[in-house]
Amino acid sequence: MTYPNLTLTLDRGELLCQGNYVDGAWRPGRAGCRYPVVNPADGQAFAEVPDSDETDARDAADSAARAFEGWRARSARERAALLKRWHALILANKEDLARLISREQGKPLAEARGEVLYGASYVEWFAEEAVRAYGDIIPEPVRGRKLMVVKEPAGVVAAITPWNFPLAMMARKIAPALAAGCTVVAKPAEDTPLTALALVRLAHEAGIPPGVLNIVTASRGHTPAVVGAWLEDTRVRKITFTGSTAVGKGLARDSAATLKKLSLELGGNAPFIVFDDADLEDAVEGLMAAKFRNGGQTCVSPNRVYVQDGVYARFAELLTARVSALAVGPATDPASQIGPMINRRALDKIAAHVADAVEKGAELLCGGRQPAGRDSPASTYYAPTVLAGASHDMLLAREETFGPVVALFRFATEDEVVAAANDTPFGLAAYFYARDISRVWRVAERLETGIVGINEGALAAESAPFGGVKESGYGREGSRYGLEDYMHTKYLCLGGLKQ
Ligand code: SIN
Fold first, then answer.
1. pLDDT at residue number 8
2. Does residue 299 line the site of ligand 1, with CB under 6 A?
3. 3-class secondary structure, 220
4. Which contiguous run of DSSP H or E holds residue 236?
5. How far is the CA of 469 from the centre of ligand 1 (A)?
6. Structure confidence at residue 2 (pLDDT)
7. pLDDT tens for each residue of 140-173
8. pLDDT value at position 307?
9. CA of 36: how far to CAs of 28, 39, 57, 303, 446, in Å?
10. Which residues are catalytic, by number?
11. Could you report how far apart the first and last alpha carbons of the chain are, in Å?
12. Does the beta carbon of 301 lie inside 6 Å of ligand 1?
């Protein structure tokens, strides 16, 4: 099917890829099924990709398994050089990649450009780390033996990525896998396959050999068949997944039969705490950066904002002025700061959280509806919202809202707020603003999360470990820890050495 109303213009039209990439070649799904890719701004389909099934997933795994020995045998320098070439091509095609991200995911173009640079930074970082996968020499316990530790690639890796950062999450998984010497089968989120396909095309152009990186696309309905084929395949040794806690638990359960290595970056419910001694302007700035990135559709977005009694009213006032000035509009409008939500399901969940909060006594300081003029039935925009007087019996205190909604909770003491912040099964990120240095250490230690932002709202960096504790998952992405997640530790004992 062709899409006559396709208004997406790319400098390089061939970056709009609409097939699976397996064993170095573009191909349709074996069963010939396809599904449409939709612009979240207007609900219109503008492209279509294969709706793959288990046979396509097996083809991809066959290809990755065949390529593994050759790829791991390459020197780390060779793998690094190919990753650097891929990095350069991502930067050279930044504008087209940003257009694809915006079109299928909805984030404003300026933010999409930022995502391209963010994703590229992981490719560069892991190109540089590939040559630093050091082992160890252990002092021998008895003479005549040498004890050594070497790092080896885990094997074939299945990478399953979310829709909210279609380029960065793919890059953050593929780059360390390839750097470590693993080969990859990937499946992007149903809503946002095109960015991932373009990224893989650039990897092909960079000279990543056939079979080393494979990608298949699938609708929500076919995803269990694709992922199921990889789960039961003993040659797939690792699964790396970013997405919901429910799906992550399913992967942990279903991969138990073949005991795969797992990295799970799952849901969050991040607390953001403002103490009386905080710099309030800085705290508002930090919250705006952390909360409204990607319209709040980010795992590390603050979901519960706790403000201490003495600064509550002033903070609410400063924040509401900033939030109500945010411009909502399509990704193509340079003035837009908040794009559409990814789909109707997402919008309905946000609206339900706000309605539940208001019903239970929260006060709406701004937003709380679809913006005027952007509220047609096909539209998924939601006005940036601030709610005061939130409480723990509200849905938004327990579940990730994943949208542009700030809920303010009032608190009195440090003990009380730390207990409230930790009162969740999730443990991805937490933020707090305070100036008392003893409090800074105390609170940083007591928060039960994998990431803590102290007087800072923008946390992610390619050189820092990203990941959670509790039901937010395990494993780390980015940083030197992110490379280790794709490697096994092998102990070599060399004996019989004569003196
Ligand atoms: C995510 O939302 O899963 C990733 C966010 C980030 O990389 O900062």
1. 83
2. yes
3. coil
4. strand 236-242
5. 15
6. 56
7. 999 999 999 999 999 999 999 999 999 999 999 9
8. 98
9. 14, 10, 20, 32, 47
10. 265, 299
11. 75
12. no
